[in-house]
Amino acid sequence: MHAAARSSAAHPSRGASGAAPAHLIIGPVGAGKSTFAVGLARERGAVRFTLDEWMTSLFSPDRPTDGIVEWYVERASRCVDRIWELAKSVLEAGTPVVLEIGLLERSQREAFYDRVARAGIDLTIHVVDAERTVRRARVLERNRTKGETFSMIVPLEVFELASDLWEPPHADECAAHDVRFVFTDPGADG
Predict the structure, then answer these.
(1) Average pLDDT over residues 1-8
(2) Is the distance from CB of 72 to CB of 55 less than 8 angstroms?
(3) How many domains does the chain have?
(4) pTM of the predicted structure, to 2 decimals
(5) d(CA 163, CA 158)
(6) pLDDT, average across residues 74-90
(7) Of 18, 20, 50, which Cα lies nearest the Cα of 33?
(8) Neighbours of 62 (CB within 10 A)
(9) Residue 45 belongs to a domain with what CATH number?
(10) How many Cα atoms are found within 13 Å in the side-chain-facing hemisphere of 2?
(11) What gap in Å lies between CA 182 and CA 184, rounded to an integer?
């Protein structure tokens, strides 16, 4: 995997608020976000928060057969709220965090950016992406093998829906924030 523009700083400095920096990992399903997040957390000595792990642990046994989208959205929102409160405590204690919390749509990200700014936390956004055909094959393989970053089965129709919802950052979003791109397609040169 090629990690474009990744900093080599071993110990991050504290931001304006005195808190450690936060790293937000965004991208479409199957892009390699979890693999990237694990490596980044290890490299930065950070605590990693992953929405899929929370959703699976807390709500998987209660998952309905109908109305799954509404059911998921409401619970994911509550999880993100709680994850952010815990992440702020970790940041204020001087430990960086890596947040893999969804935020497929720009409006969701803008609301999150506002939260982070109000807390005075320095934020780096890592956009992990790959071609849709590559991502689809990865999701099917992850469903089959249930490897290291597996949290839950992602049915093909959910993969397609989530892929359609993904809104990559546009130039103005990138200009307003510290956004770095990581391309995980085989042979991608960043």
Answers:
(1) 38
(2) yes
(3) 1
(4) 0.85
(5) 8
(6) 95
(7) 50
(8) 8
(9) 3.40.50.300
(10) 12
(11) 6
164 close to 63: Cβ distance less than 8 angstroms: no
**Mean pLDDT over all residues of the chain?**
88
Amino acid at 124: T
> Does any domain span residue 33?
yes
According to DSSP, the β-strands at 123-129 and 47-50 are: unpaired
Residues 30, 135 contacting (CB under 8 angstroms): yes
Beta strand segments in the chain, E? 22-26, 47-50, 97-100, 123-129, 178-183
Q: Is residue 3 part of a domain?
A: no
Question: Do residues 36 and 124 lie in contact, with contact meaning Cβ atoms separated by under 8 Å?
Answer: no
- Position 22 pLDDT exceeds 80: yes
Our measurement of the distance from residue 55's CA atom to the centroid of its chain's CA atoms, rounded to an integer in Å, reads 14
For residue 1, being part of any structural domain is answered with no
Give the structural domain span for 68: 22-183
Distance (Å, whole) CA 23 – CA 109: 13
| Contact in structure between 91 and 20 (CB atoms under 8 Å) | yes
Residue 10: inside a domain, yes or no?
no
